[in-house]
Amino acid sequence: MKLKQLVLLFVFGLTFFTISCDSLSSVFNYTTETTNDSQSVVSVDTSVSDYLCDLSSDDLASYLESLDNTDPVIAASLVIPSVVELTVNFEFSYTATYKTPWGVSSQTVADSATSEATGFFINEEGYIVTNAHVVSLTDYEDYPDFDYSSRTVSFSFADSNAVYTATIINYDVELDLAVLKSDTVFADQSYLTFFGIDASSNINLYYGEDVIAVGNANGYGISVTSGIVSAPLRYFEDGYSVIQAVQTDAAINSGNSGGPLANLYGVVVGINSFKIVTSTSESLGYAIPANVVMDYLDGLDIPYHVTTERAYH
User: Fold this and answer.
1) Please, are residues 277 and 15 in contact by the beta-carbon 8 Å criterion?
2) pLDDT of 153 above 60
3) Calpha distance 312→118 (Å, rounded)
């Protein structure tokens, strides 16, 4: 996330920098540039095969069925079409109080900021998930008389110059989760499926499980980093709340906030949220677990897709 000012979070005295398919047909296509203005529907002109080498969409289903081992190229190809580069432009104001030789004075301060981050589609209805810190200015919201004059959310698909807008549906600062909805209807919208983590049913992540982090790193565009699940579950205290997180050594940089942490079957195990940066640590990235995200979506009655299998879908 890029703001005019760095956002610092303190957990356990450490400095944290917030950085920020049920069917194959759902991942074959995503849509980009050609708009039908009369129906406000964007036509399909890019498919998951664009991110594969010498493999057409028609061949993908049979290829996946015959694949004996996971392949990070395939995983990235399944994930990328549903991931978007987010830009949020903020206009806001607050009351600043300061001392003068003549006493205490106050004035209204107007300012602006920009956040560059990541989101991804979770269903064919156009809903997108990301982090709350991507669409809010939590450090400023406690200022006297704080008010958003405007918040404009726009997004682009990977390798596309077309820009679309989205509406903020809801966000939860404590969970660091947010839901957006695309203002444009996409034909054959691709989306990602969540991995149904459920400790009571012994459906867990594995230590050392291979994962990829997909996101708009440094605002340069969608890119992929790889790593493992360093720890399936970590707990952090943040004020009066407890944060659950999946630890990974996959590189998470500014702009990766809100992007998917996926296994090598292209299924989302978490949403990238923050990393720990100290002089004595490295490769400590954290993602909000998929089950936490699904609980949040359940509370909003927003549909999503889930699997408990480690398999291509």
Assistant:
1) yes
2) yes
3) 24
For tokens 């957990």, the residue is: 11
**Residue where the block lists tokens 């605002």:** 219
Whole-angstrom CA distances from 35 to 80, 187, 230, 312 are 21, 10, 43, 31
Q: How, if at all, do strands 29-36 and 41-47 pair?
A: antiparallel
- Burial of 44 by CB count in 10 Å (0-12 exposed, 13-18 middle, 19+ buried)? middle
d(CA 270, CA 135): 19
Could you give the CA distance from residue 129 to residue 224 in angstroms, rounded to a whole number?
Answer: 18
83 Cβ contact list (under 8 Å, min separation 6): 118, 119, 120, 157, 158, 192, 214, 215, 222, 259, 260
Parallel, antiparallel or unpaired: strands 14-18 and 8-11: antiparallel
What's the CA gap between 244 and 286, in Å, rounded?
9
Helix (H, G, I), strand (E, B) or coil at 185: strand
What are the residue numbers of the active site?
Answer: 133, 176, 257
Distance CA(84)–CA(184), nearest Å, equals 13
Dump pLDDT digits (tens) for 166-211: 999 999 998 999 999 999 999 888 999 999 999 888 889 999 999 9
CA-CA distances (angstroms) from residue 93 to 100, 115, 143? 21, 17, 9
Prediction pTM value: 0.80
Joined tokens for residue 106: 């106050």
Q: What CATH code is assigned to 1-313? A: 2.40.10.120
Establish how many alpha carbons lie within 13 A of residue 262's alpha carbon, considering only the half-sphere containing its beta carbon. 35
Quickly list H helices, 35-131: 57-66, 72-79
Q: Give the separation between CA 105 and CA 20, rounded to whole angstroms.
A: 37
Domain ranges of the chain: 1-313
Contact present, 113 and 90 (Cβ < 8 Å):
yes
